[in-house]
Structure formats: C-alpha cells, structure tokens
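Exercise 7. Given the components listed, write out the predicted structure of the assembled complex. Treat all entries as one system.
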Amino acid sequence: MLVPTIGVEVHVELKSNTKVFSSSLNAFDNEPNKYVSVIDLGYPGTLPKLNKEVINMALSAAIALNCKINKVMHFDRKNYFYPDLPKGYQITQNKTPIGYDGYLEIEINGKKKKIGIERIQIEEDTCKSIHVEGKTLLNANRAGVPLIEVVSKPVIETGEEAALYLEKLREILLYLGISDVKIEEGSMRCDANISLKEHDSPEFGTKIEIKNIGSISHVKTSIEYEEKRQKELLLKGEILKEETRRFDEKTLTTVLMRTKETGNDYRYFPEPDIPYVVLSEEWISEIKNNMPILADELKEKYRKLGINENNIKTIISNISLCKFFETVVDKTNPISAANILTSEVLGYLNKNYIKISDMKLNQDNFIKLIEYINIGKISSKQAKDIIPVLIEKELSIDQVISELKIEQISDENILLEIINKIIDLNPNAVNDFKDGKYRAVKFLMGQIMKETKGQASPQILNKLLTEELSKR
Amino acid sequence: MTRYTELSIIEINKLLKNKEIKPIDLVLETFEKIESSNINAFITLNKEEAINKAIELENKEVDNIMFGIPIAIKDNIITKNLKTTCASRMLEDFIPIYDATVINKIKEKNMIIIGKTNMDEFAMGSTGETSYFGATLNPWDSTVVPGGSSSGSAASVSSGLSIVALGSDTGGSIRQPSSFCGVVGMKPTYSRVSRYGLVAFASSLDQIGPISRTVMENALLLNVISGYDENDLTSSKKEVIDYTRLINKGIKGLKIAVPNYYMADTINSEVRNSVRKVIDILKDEGCTVENIDIDYLDYAIPLYQVIALAEASSNLARFDGIRFGYVSSNFTNVEELYKNTRSEGFGNEVKRRLMIGSYVLSGDNAHKYYEKALLLRREMANALKKVFEKYDLIIGPTNTDVAYPFGTKIDDALKSFYDDLLTIPVNMAGLPAMSMPVGFKSNLPIGLHIIGNYFKEDVMYQLGHFIENKLKLHLKPGGEK
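Answer.
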C-alpha cells in the first residue's frame, strides 16, 4: 500500500520595527523602494547590523513551539544569483537554526497528535519582483524584512493534518504577536513536500514540492490532489522525478514549474560579517517570562469559566476580539460577556464592516452593559438598541440610555400601581390564572408593557405580577 | 623652493598653527607633484574638492595634529561623491552615496582627501598589475613592481605624492607594497579599524590600515581611524589607546621571536642579512631575540586560497549588473546579463579567484576544503598566539625578496600568491603586523616585518621607531641611498 509522507515549510514575516540586518523601517507602503538603505541594496562596502528584536521574536517562537535552542548560533550565507537577491546571497541560518527539534499539537478526530518541528531559522526576505510589460521591476521595501522559516518533520500523513498543523502554527504565531501571519498578504507563505512510499519501505519516495500555496484550505486540496496524481503515476509503473509544482486555484490541480535536475548548490558558509550570537540562560528565561498567554491556555481558561465551545471558538479565532474580551473577562460575568460579545457586538461589527480597533465601545461601558442586563435595568432587547450606539459613538452607557429614553421602570411602587390597574381591568385573566393557565400572566405582562411603552423591567414585573395575582 | 609636504607632520602642524602656511599650500604643492609624476599612483584625483576644503579650513582652528594633512585613499574604500572603482571595469563609473567609517573619521579631523589610489583589481594581486587602469610604477625603479594590492597608496607615499595614505590588507596588501616601496605600512589587529565602507574581498581577513613615511606618522594616522563602529559588528569595543605613547621609550628587555621559517633558505640572503643586522642592533640594546619554530606557517598559501577566495566568491556576487556598476549591453535574458556583465566587467585574476572560491565551497568540496581550512586556520592562529605567551613581538622579513620586474609572475597564478608567504599567517590569526624599511638590495628597499600581539600596535611602533632612528636610512627614491 502506498502511503504519503508530507512535510510543510512555512516562511513567516516578523513585524519588528526595523529590518533584520539594517535600520530601515520594516513597513508596508504603496510607494516602492521607500524603506531602503545602502545595506538593503547590498551596496559595495556595506555590512549587516543585527536586530535584537528579531532574535527575541524568533526565540519566543522557538520556545512556543517547544524547540531546543541553539545557544551559540551563527548565520550562514546561502549563495545564488537571482535578480531579487541584492547581495547575491541570502543571510540565513543553515548549521545553527535558533530552534530545532520541537513540536506542536493538533487535534484530529478528537485525538491529539504531535507534529514534529525540525527547525526554525532566522533569515532575510528578498526584493519583490514586479513584472510589467515584459520588464521586471524590483521593490526593495521587502528586502531585509525578517523571516522565520519553520520546517516540519516529514511526519504529516494527510492533507487535513497539514491544514490543522498550519492553522495551529498560525494561531501560535499570531498570539505571540510576532507576525500578522496573513497568507493573502504574503506575511505567511506555505510550501508542501509530498512523497509516496510503500507503507513498509524504510526509504522515502521521490519528493515533489508545491510552492507558495495561497491558503490553508488549498494546502489541503493541493496535497490531496498531489497524492492522487502521484499514486496514479506510480501504479502505472512510472518513475517520478523531483519536481517543483504550483497549485492552480482555478482547476484545483498542481502544475509543473520545474524539474530539479541536480541538487541545488548554495555554497553555504558561515557569515563572516556577523559574530556568533550567544543566547544566555538569562536571555532565554527573560523571553520565557514575558511570553504572552497563548491560545491554548486561553481556551482552557474560558472552558473553566463555563463559556460554551462555540463562543470560545469565535473569540479565539479573532485575536482582536479575544484581546478585548481579556480586558473584561475577569471583571464581569464571563458567560454573559461572551454571549453579548459574540452575538450582538460581533454581529453589528461584521454587518457594518467595523474593525474592533475602530469601535468606540470601551471596557467600562461593556462591563456596565452586562451588569445592567443582569440586574434587569435594561432588557436584552433594549441592549440591542444600545450596543450599536456604544460602538459608533463615544458616549457612556448612561448617556445612551437616557438619550434613547429606554430606561426601565424598576421602581416597585410605580409598577405595583400599574399592575393593579391592569389586573382590575382584566378580571377574566385573573380567573384564567387561578385555573392554572400560565398564558394569563403573559397576556397581562403584554398589557402592562403596552401601558409602560415597554419600559417596565421584565424581571421585576414578572415577580410583582405573580405576587399580586396570588393575592387575588 | 621649500617643499612643505616633505616636512614631518609634526613640523607641518607647527607651521599651520603659527599661520606660516595654509592648508592650500600643502594641497597645491601636492597636486603640482602628482601632475608632474608618471607612476600612475592615482585612479581618481579629488583636486577641486581638496582645494575647496583647504580654503574652508583657513577659517578653522588647527585643533588636531592631522588638521589639513593631505591623504590618499585606496580605491576600494567608499568615498561619497568621489568615484570608487576598485580598479575594475565593473565599477569604472561608480560614484558612491555614502562614506566609509574611516572616511568619516578622516573628515572629522579635517584631513584633506587628495585622491583615490591605484590598486590590484578588487585588491586581488600583489603587483598592482591587475588594475584595469594599468599598473603603478615603483618609484625606486620603474621597471619593477610596486607590490600590491595597495600599489598606488604605497607608491604615492614613497614618491612624496601624499604624506600618508590608507591601504587595505587581506593577505599582505599593505605590508608587501610598503616593503617594495620603502615605506611604513601597518595592518592593525582585525576588528580595530571598522571595515564599513571597505569593498569586501575576504571579510574575515580584510583590514584597513595606514601607510606612511615614518613610524610616528603611521601611529598618528592609526589614532585617527581606530575604534568601535556600530556599523561593523566585527569591530572591537576595546578602548583605543594613543598609539604613539611608547614611541621614544627604551626597548631594553623586549622579548622578540624570530621564526626559523622566516629566515629559511627560501628567503633571499640579502634580505635575511638586513634582518640579521637589525637583530644585532636589538641585542645590543638589551632585547632578547630568539629563533623559534612556529607550527603550521607553511600552510599559509593553501589556507589563503581556500578561505579568502571562498569569501571573495560570495562578496563579489553582488556585481551582477542589476543595481550598480557595469552592465553588459549584450544580453537577451537574465542568465546572459549575469554572464556577460561579469565576464566583461571583471579582469582575469578576479575571475580566476572567483572560480576557485566557488569551487571550494561547492557541494562536497565545502567539507573537503573549506571546513578543513577553517580548522587549520584555528590551529595556525593558536600556534601564533602561543608565541605571545613568551614574547612581545615577532620579527622577520616582510617578503621573500625585494621588488621584481613587471611581468615576472603575471602568467603564473600560483607564483603571485608566494609573495604573501610570510604575511598571510598574520591575517589568518587576526594579529597586527607592520612592514618598515631596514635596508636595500642594490637600489630596492627591504622590509622588516614586525608582528605584535592583539591590540599591541603601540609596542610595534615603539620597536619600529627605535629601529628607524638607529638606521637613519635615506628613503627618498632617486636620492642618495
């Protein structure tokens, strides 16, 4: 039986302030070649600097991915000619990747599985090539942007596992706050390697690489397609050659880019312009001690608070929402807060294309909102009118309530007067109540709400009405 | 007519301070000399800028010893708005947009850059003959080589065209031409002088250093260019000392080693005799001088060929015709652009070295040659370091012989490396080393090699200055010997 061996390589752009080997800003801009220095251009005579922030970020990734750390690490030059590569070599880590031999855990069919990580290395990005009218233009804004390359061990067995691995990796890096990890914007780039072998064969089959796959779901689709394609060829008795392919999003198939004639010869050697970096125990523990709480830990916390799985999933999958939630969760009823946040608040934001960072709803107002709902000061129905205003305008919840004239009547004396008035007007309903017909209460509630223009506090009204009816 | 530029820097400084002369007098005299010289020491002159600078300095206080002193710069050191060619067609029209760190330091001291000196192309060569702009002539004899790769810097100082100059040394490129031209050249401790803005040949070996007429003036220039630079991660944070501080201090008690390898039969006997004369003087003065064996020195050339050329093959990859420098007009695709640009832009010696360098890093060769060379390099460095546990200095000849006629070695790729037989080990270990004239073979200068412990340039100057004073050689080419 033929079984696939799958490995995934991911390049992730780190969002450090400046580039990895120069002081140029690491930023996106529509204007090409704006964030460029002589170092980024590989100008003769220039030498690399080393951005400590990048090392810290890569170190946090290595720790989060349970890697061993190369405590004495250096950089290497990977030599090759390509127009987007200004120096004719890329500074990367070949011999001493910052992290190695780690893993992350995925859950597949209710079972947990560790996916091994072979290495995490720091390297620099290249220029972006833009092809216009038969010409190639270079944009060096990206040249020298820090990358980490995360290479999985070839232990992934299905396209689905690969997708779960990538989702998990993405979530970890996102919660570390070191990258935007957006595949569509190129801050996360995925390549997959697939080979097939007889299940009992100790040797791997011929490796086919699928380059730069455009989304996580396409990783799954392309691996599944490739597995099928290779299987068919092998069963026909064909001998495969090492190839690089790409995924065609229209036909959902993989297409040959080039065959690898001979192994690439990158003439690696240690970068002589950057001395060895010693990652001391103190340095590593400082990074460890300042690690943000990661998604798995938050999920566990929310479960313990009794928040339902759907809400947890919604909150965790939206890091800005999660960050907001974290500012309120310990100061209010977490279950109500999760409910309101994932339904009314998120619903309104999505419907109106408002970013969480742009909403005016602050944590004080949100905490009061939950409190007012829980003590019956406002109904959930009224909350639905209040939330959009809180999101759009910089007003306090009390201002909104009085502005919308939706404050509830919760004064028992006022309510009692109205209740008795309505009861007197509806003797039939009282009889129905005595016959045990609960709908009588509902009917009377409706009459009172009509009388109070909906402002009676439902909880208090319910309590008082039942009491009054029982007295009759 | 008084030749102000032939006075010592200390004397010039006095005259400038007393307003007896102005910087412009030095500059005009310099260009008058350069224009009547035919040794091809310069690739680019900075006349207009130098004159403007000299005039600008007239209103400034003479605040340091190097104020207003004209200086020549090897053409592989990046100078803003001043063409920097590396003596290559590849950079024939290359005008940089920034200054090397050493240039900033020179400008801070208000020294005046008079031009960029000729050299072997990309510092690859030891005769000056690989320059795209033609060879520099040796001021002592126009039929022999000036040495290289800092050929123009050494020859310009030797012939009085510049008072001081900067060179660079990867395997002997400051010391060997200094020796052939009869001037003082120092390759400082690796990391002492920032390499930022030095067009890299072999990054782990390259070092910028001063070339001068006298030991004292060499120390004065090293004072200017030394120091930590945040733009060069390999530069040392160690505090800079005053390199003149031990000059004129007695040398009695200094312990000096003479490696047997440096006095073997492979070295010309007249050269050895000159060194022996120096040894006798030092012994008379109360120094301990002992002959010793140092392991691994005989591996210098193969080591250099592997390590220096491997690094060079990578460092020069950026000259691809895309961002700067020469672009072939003959291409239809990117592959041809690379091939033709590099085939046409680089000279033969550079191409030969880049091919060897690529070869030793390629596939299994990386393990077979490069990694083995790194191990051997460490052993060689350790062997040299060990000497300094017992001795203050190492001395010997800088070269196996004096300068030789043009064309002698140009057709033999291997032969030219042998010029660096005695100088390369120092670069491998990162130690400081200096060459200074100590005699002549017929009319050609002989260089003494003084090797110091890390960051002990001051002790080397102390010894060098003593020897210079004792010998009192007449070091004006064409003059009395």
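Discussion: The CA atoms of residues 158 and 416 of chain B lie 22 Å apart. DSSP finds 15 helices and eleven strands in chain B.
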